[in-house]
Structures are given as structure tokens and as C-alpha cells.
Amino acid sequence: MPSSPEDSGKRRLQFLKNALKITIAAGLIFFLFSTGKIDIGQILHSYTNPGALLAGVLCCTIACAIPIVRWWILARIQQLNVSLFDALRLTMISYFFSIFAPGNVGGDVVRAYYALRESPDQKPRVLTVALVDRGLGLHALLFLSAAALVLQPRLLDAAPGLRQWMIPAVCLFAAAMLSPLLLLWDRTNSLLLSLCGRVVGGVQAWRDAVTFYRSRPGMLGLAYLCSLGNAFFNALLIHCMMRAVGAAPVLLESLIIGPLVILANMLPFSPGGLGIAEAASAILYGAAGHAGGASGMLLTRCVVIIHALVGAVFLLLYKKPSIQQGVRNPSVE
User: What is the pLDDT of residue 259?
Assistant: First the structure.
């Protein structure tokens, strides 16, 4: 059946968007290579710092594992029939697609898609879990960067170039701290619930979701602790890779800079943030007086890609459905 002109137009627009993103990534990587910001020699000789390299690989493994538990906890709060193995399988598949899919397909989107294939009657709850999962992750990244700055404010005196970058980070952190409180408070959550409902799931689904989260504050707090742990190990991964390429940032510097680099990597302007995160790392670590920021981030990306390849195994062995449809019965917990 021939496609309609509208469908053809959408495909052409998507093709142009993907082409633009690839062009941006290629341009940034070429610029970083040509200016010496990315040094292949530093990356290839990272094996001369085996302690830092192996520590980084371990941090990456932990950082990949923690979101599995977080997503599983959020799914249980929403009373979805999801086992821990289901969360492992869906999350690893999402890692694979977030790295290797064309365009800028987010891991959250892929995980929600596969979860919906297995629980189609629970679409609103699955979608709200996906959005809350991403929200907790973003909040934890901002919180970690702000907390590290509070613990060592003199870092800005030693690295005045970082000051200009911390102003937007502080503004984002203030917004991130305020949003959950407004969402949970009855007097202010109507507008936010309406906005969230228009984005994904519907207003009633978000009202139900908020009710469930209020009823399980302990599990929600545990999910946030998982987010903090994930943010910490991701920042520590970047720190170790910086050490592996020969740079010498102190840990608190990486706890401030690392989350900001990860946030830059999430910007949807290139496939998987390629080039953008490397440029951000070069700028921020450079402002702190450390060379090799782009090389360290590129090495970090290589380690992440190797971990994401594990998702291909789960994708090849994927069978649907293993998640039982319907809502879990709280009485059997």
C-alpha cells in the first residue's frame, strides 16, 4: 500500500533531522581532533594506567546496573507485574538501542516500548514510570554537582573559569528541587499534572501515579537513592577515564563537572550526544585547568559502548511476553 504524502513528508523530515544530527556530531569530533583536544595517543596509552582504567570499567558496570533496580522499584510502586529479570532484560535492550539506533532514540523510549508490548493494558502506568525514572536521574545529577560544590566551594576560587558554567547549573538545580514538591502538593499539582498528562499517559494516569508514590514513600526514597548512586558512579567513571588518559583532576572536581558533562550528553542535537559531551568535557575540565577532557570523555564513551553491546544478547533472546498482563495484587507481597 503506497504511503500518503503526509507520511512521506514525515519520513523526509526525520531523515533531514538525523542527517543534521550526524553532521553536528561529525563536525564537533573533527574540530576536536583538528585542534588537538582529542588525542588518540592518550586514549591508546590508557593501558599504562591500569588501575584507573579497570576502576572506570567497574564504575561503568555498577552505573549500568543501578538503573535496572531503580526502574524495577518504580514499576513495583505502580503495581506492574515486572520481575527483576524483566527489568534487567528491558534495560539492557534499551542501552543497546540508545547507543546503536539511528537518530537519537532514548533508552527510556525503547524500554517503555518493549514494556508496553508485554503489558499493553498498562500503558499509562508504564509511561509514567518512564518519565519519573528520567526525572529522578536528572534531579540526582544536578543534586550531586551542587552538593560537591557546597562541600568544596573553594574549587571555584582555584578554577574561576568554572564560575560562568555553575550559574545555569544552579538555576536548573533550583527548578529541579521545586518541581517534585509542587507535583506532590495538592494545592499546586493540578497544573503540573495537566502538563505531564498532555506529554504522556493522560491526566488521570498521573493522578493515580501520584497516589501510588505517596503511598510508598520508602520505596520512592530508595529509587532516588539509586539515582544518586547512578549519578555518583557515572561521574566517577569519567573521573577514572580522565586519570587513565593522564589528567589529574581531584575527585570533587569530577563530581562537579561529571554530572554537567552527562547532562550535555543528553542534549538531542547529535546521535547519543556524540561530540557534544566531548566538547563539554574539554571546556569544563579545561576551565578547571585540566587538559584531556575530550579524550577522557571519548574513552568513557568507548567503555559505555562495550557495556551496551550486552544488550544485543538480550535482544536476540527476546521473547514476548514474560511479564504478566494486569496489575499486581498487593495482598501477595
Answer: 92
